[in-house]
Structure formats: C-alpha cells, structure tokens
C-alpha cells in the first residue's frame, strides 16, 4: 500500500536513475504505475514483456513521483502516527511518539534473498551481547511503500509463499529462533518478468491487481529518440514534467474517494467478468477499483464506459482462462465483444420503449378510438376508428416483445453491486469448478488418426508432496540452493554460526555450546529436463501432424510436472536449438506447431545437439524425445 504525504517535493537523493518522463512511450505501463500509486487498494502491478523494454527502468522511476510521508521516528516499521489500527504493538502503547517525514519506501527484493532476510530474524549483534532482539527484514522496510521484484517469475517458491501470506493478511508473523513477532506489512507489490523465462504460479499471479504487457517501440522516430536520450545520459530537464505528473497524482488521490461508479457500469463490470470466465471475484473488484482510479487520474468525478474498458485491459489479462499450450484470448476482443452485445441490447430496449410510447399516444386518442379498437378486435360491426390497424399491430407487437423482455430480465444477473468488500474476494481463487470455455478460445486440436497415444515417461518428481505436480522440493545435498530453515547440527557438520549464536541467545546462555549448534537446510529440487529433437526434413511432411500430436501430449505431461523443456530441430545439414531449456511449455508448443519441413535428414546432428543441451544443463533427470521417421540421409558419412 503506497501512502503519499502532503505533496512535499522529492528529495534529490531519491531520484531514479532515469526520470519518469524521460522514458519514451510505454504510456500503458506509466498509467498502470500511476494507478497503483494513486489507489492504495490496487495492491499490485505485474509488468510482463520482452527484455530491453524499460520495464525495470520505468518501475524504478516511480520513486520520482512519490512525495514524503509521516511516520513514527524510531519505529522500524514506519507506522503512521495518526492511525492506531495500522500501528505495531509498540507504537499503539505510546502516548506521544516522535514523528518524522520520510520518503515512501521503495524496497527491492533480490532473487537470491534468504527467508531470514525477507521476514526478519534474531539479531546476531544483539545475540552476541546477550540480548534476544528481532532484526526486521525486507517486509518490515517495505511497510507503507513499494516492494519491487525484478524477474518475479524466477523467485524461489519458499519466498513466493512468504509474499502470498503477507499480501493476504497485511501482517508478517515470525515464529522461529526463539522469536515470536507480529508486525504490519502493507505494501504495493510491483513485479517485472519476461514471459519467455516462465510464468507465475496462478495463485501468485492473481494477487497482482493489474497486469501490463510491454513491447519495444517499432516507430523509427521513437527508437532514435531512445538512442539520443540514452547517449545523452538522460541529462535533459524533466523537472517541470515530473512536477506536473506528481501534482496530477496527488489530485487523483484527493478525488478518488468521491468518484462514483454508476449502477449500470457496476453491472457491466460484473457481467464482463462473468462472461470472460475468470475465477472468483478478484477480477470484478480490481476492474471496478481501476475504473474509479482512471477516472480520478483524469480529474472526473464519475466513471464512464471508457474507464471500464481501460480498466479491464489492466485487470483481466492475467486472469483469463486458457488451456495448456494455448494463448489466452485477447483482452481487447473480450471487452469489445461484451460492450458490442451490450449496446445491441440497449438499442433493442430503446426501440421497445419507443414502440410502447407510441402505443401510449394511441391510447390517449380518446374513448372513441378505444371503443372502435375493442369492437374491431371483438369482430363487431361498429364504426371504424380512423387508424385502427396500426394500433392493433402495435398492441400485438408490444405484447410479444413485452413477454420476451420479461424473460430477459428473469435471466439477468443480479450484478448491480460489485461487492468490493465481500467475502467472495478472499476465496475467489480456491474454487474447484471446471474451467469454462473461454469466449474466442479455440477448441483443442484432435490428434490425427493413427497418431496413437504418447508414450509414458516417468520422472522422479512426478508426484510432489504438494499435490500440484510441481518439482519436488527436497533438502539440498550439495550445500547449494536457498536457505529455508536451520536444524540442530553435530560439531562435525557445516555449522551456521549466526543461527548458532541466535540459539544460544534464545536459551539465555552467554556462550555457544554444542546443543546450540545449527546447520542450514537449503532447498533443492529434483530438476528434470525434456529435450524434443524434432526431424524437420522433407520426409516428415506427411507424418508431421501425427508427430506433433504425440509431442504435444508429452509436453502436457511436462507441464503437469513443471519440468523444463527444450526444442532441437534438425534438417538440411545441421541441427538448431530453437528453444533453450525453459519452464515455459507454451513457448515449446508454439515452436512445435509452427515448425516447417523441408530438406534432408541429419539425424546424427540432431542427436548431438540434444546431447549438448543436456551436457550444458546438467539436470537431475533427463528425457530426450526424438521425433523422426528414421530416414537419415545427411551427416558426415552421408554420400
């Protein structure tokens, strides 16, 4: 949760290396960053895109826009002095604590950070002095600020679990090394990632309120401008632009509480998210909050349909459902389809209302017209009204349409209220319902006749203890990997000195005894690599469809076990590694589906290339899947 102050200017030592306005283009990314800075309830932004597209640069430049905040001076958590409900236990027990104005924390979480560094631990310095004092970690420093993770998709699972717990509860609980501490940790999580290096766990991805996709600039003028600014060291004067953006941000925060979301648009949000097939209700809430924030950033007190459309582009992309190896439907198409259908229904309703109004005018023509119409409907011979036929047709049409309209209302969804504070938000990601068919999502391709089923391959980590098919986490035997805990050690073990001192301090001793010795337990994993060596020669044109079907079935197995995959193709005189080892099986499937065929079959080269991939990766377990017809006719010994 980002808390801004009263608008004081940014301190010079807090400036990012590149000013926020100096980033060329990337307006979508900039808007997403401003949205999470303007609305405390938008508690996360995921930035995904190819490398070299200013993801990290723009995120770090956000520090230029965050004014100072008031905090308790000597509190390690930076508690707000005027909000007891969000203070730590020590601050709540103080009558008149000293207050200071400090920069909004912007804390970077390194990928290699230990669990102790993140959650905090017993202070070694104090332990050596005989005191058992808690040393706050990165979560404490990030309270009321921004926690930034570069390459968040590569973050170790044990740290992901810590962030999930902290984000869900708003507090950090530490129960280890004789320390029992609970402190507030409310932060905005900003993560950047390259999808080619793997995706996030679904439950972690859903914790980001918004997601932004970025790409490099194609316009030559923009690329030249990027060159000029980079070569010039971004030394231009951006102070005035920065001040204007900062003022706009502060005004948006002041206006946000009074921005209203009309009931009709709240219903649109609910229906849009339902029709998109997203799990739970977090998407509804995030879309509604983002729409209000975008309106506030534009200085408007009421949300419009345009705001909802833009908000959905931020809140839905990472929540749309897709089958394994298939791209999720385009968010813009889903939004456009919904509002086009909505506008068609609105036009139909307006036509019906116009017809009803015309019918009402006919009813007001007088008793004679009514009597004449009644007699005509009854088959009588009375005097005819001047316009009996139109009245009779309108009456019939309105009666039929009225019945249809009632049916539509009966089938409507009671979505007028988004329920931002409802209980459904917390449980949204835990539903066990089958994944619905997503609008615009192609059905799974069937394997060609004769393709058969994929051969089964066993993996030592096929059934992990977490039941989710992830690679099994196990204690590392080579001393490598992230440290997750400590355990009692013998004098001959690799002793963790800091943990041993903390154990002695927790016991109350002034010296470290053998019973205090601790050793680190580091997380390892039984990594598995599946290398697909695919024959792309001309002789594979016929059987390639069946071969691709078998390969995709094997990819599905790798996806369920979270194995890494690599793709090697061979044709002509050589072999190519078209996809180095990665845990993104979607990329592997994409390469297989678009694989062309032609030329000769250098089977030996393909096998050597696959062996080279295994040698460089050195996985714990490996499977090489060779997809070929076996008609090798190219190589060093070929005629």
UniProtKB/TrEMBL annotation:
VWFA domain segment(s): 529-639
Annotated Acidic residues bias: 327-364, 372-384, 402-433
Region of interest: Disordered: 319-518
Sequence ranges of Low complexity compositional bias: 497-509
Keyword ATP-binding attached: yes
A Gene Ontology molecular function term of the record: ATP binding
PANTHER family reported in the protein's UniProt record: CHELATASE-RELATED (PTHR35023), MG-PROTOPORPHYRIN IX CHELATASE (PTHR35023:SF1)
Protein name: VWA domain-containing protein
Taxonomic lineage from the root: Archaea, Methanobacteriati, Methanobacteriota, Stenosarchaea group, Halobacteria
